[in-house]
């Protein structure tokens, strides 16, 4: 039975690295994967999933209006797929998460989605909220705060390193803009500036 998996974490925990390793494991065994990524995240160029440790792979790019079920069904019809992997899954819409469930249930293809659980304010992303609700299997990928405790939150910082507490939910960036923290240090940092 194909399942929908959601691998979640804060920033810099190795989600893209884990996705790329999972795809490699399938391919190494002669299986075919489809890596998908939202058009919104173009930090490393469009059409690529790239890890901070330097590995990468081509990806099929989709936007918020895309019918991911139709995309996967078409690709599967053209050449049988054994797994679908989604990078930056927090950017999925509710409808797209539902469609990924249909990929598992109707096309019998497992889907491995990787993404953030919450934004810089501690609020859930739309895609993450529905993946947490509807995925068959949830797995936390862990990273650490500067204090050594498990980091579960992320803060956005301005150019001076000051915590940003307001603004658009989505602002693409990496280590230059975001820091992963444990809940205690998130609260201390976030509430110090509000």
Automatic annotation (TrEMBL):
Keyword Cytoplasm assigned: yes
Name of the featured protein: Thymidine kinase
EC numbers for this chain: 2.7.1.21
Subcellular location: Cytoplasm
Family to which the UniProt record says this protein belongs: Belongs to the thymidine kinase family.
Residue positions of the active site: 88
Enzyme class: transferase
Binding-site list for Zn(2+): 145, 147, 182, 185
GO cellular component: cytosol
PROSITE patterns per the UniProt record, alphabetical: TK_CELLULAR_TYPE
Pfam families xrefs: TK
Keyword annotations of the record: ATP-binding, Cytoplasm, DNA synthesis, Kinase, Metal-binding, Nucleotide-binding, Transferase, Zinc
SUPFAM superfamilies: Glucocorticoid receptor-like (DNA-binding domain), P-loop containing nucleoside triphosphate hydrolases
Species in which this protein is naturally found: Congregibacter litoralis KT71
Catalytic activity reported: thymidine + ATP = dTMP + ADP + H(+)
Subunit architecture: Homotetramer.
Binding site for ATP: 9-16, 87-90
Keyword Signal included in the entry's annotation: no
PANTHER family attached to this UniProt entry: THYMIDINE KINASE, THYMIDINE KINASE, CYTOSOLIC
HAMAP family: Thymidine_kinase
GO BP terms in the entry: DNA biosynthetic process; thymidine metabolic process
Listed GO MF terms: ATP binding; thymidine kinase activity; zinc ion binding
Binding site for substrate: 170-173, 178
